[in-house]
Design brief:
Strand content: 5-15%
Strand order of the largest sheet: 3-2-1-4-5-6-9
Mean pLDDT: 90
Order of helices and strands: EHEHEHEHHHEHEEHHEHEH
Low-confidence stretches: 1-6
Largest sheet: 7 strands, parallel
Helix content: 40-55%
Number of helices: 11
Number of strands: 9
Shape: globular
Amino acid sequence: MASATNAAKKRIVVCGGNGFLGSRICKSAVARGWDVTSISRSGEPTWSSVSSSPNPPPWSTSVSWQKADILKPTTYTPLLKDADAVVHSMGILLEADYKGVLTGKESIVSGLQRAFSATKQGSQNPLERKEGEGLDSQEKDGQITYELMNRDSAIALARHTSLSQIPTFAYISAAAGAPILPQRYITTKRSAESTISSSFPSLRPIFIRPGFLYDSSRTFTMPLAALTGVAALANSMTGNRLTWLMGAGGVKPLRADLVAEAVVEALGDEEVKGVVETEEIEVLANKGWRRGML
């Protein structure tokens, strides 16, 4: 990883910019003086859900909070114009049937059978969609699946990034799955990475793979981060031989602000390309923070 970074002002588009990590990516980019557009279905965040205050922070006035649907490319394609980089920071951790089991809306047996099924449908092939066509769930009940949101929406966004002649595309992936999650959670993310790398040679793809994200504004993440940190230390003492069993539970947890800073640093550094794992995320974040102190 080279140290040379293009510090010139950039224009970036963050799809999912009103989320827990996405809003912090916007904040970090604003701090560098970049032009930032956030794309989400609801526009500006509900601040109490992503920060410790219900009030918009001062930096938020520097972001263009746009409404668009990641599953309907015609709604966001015009917003990509003249961007230098696009970030996909959208995805689902739990599918509807898994949530239904947890909330008591679905029977445990049928809900978990469907949630942990080996395969589910995504959209029609995102590489072969007709012009103007949206991404439609191919599940009979129209369910939003890992295949649709974690894989196909990212591939479609990368495709439109490439068609718009934007050079850089960052995808927020994950370090690993977890024993409590269906395997498809991580396999769809890896599939997205592979397809984006092979299908769009004009792009500089960046695949950020953090483990568990935490922040004091989400108090429930703090004890989980502490537990994950202990597990990650134990895993490291075995040479990470337990990652296959522990998944993200055996990977060092990271502060959401740190990951956001690393994403923005990676966007600005033309030498950063491909998979960015935990150690590199920390290196990039530290480079970014040192730059800000100069």
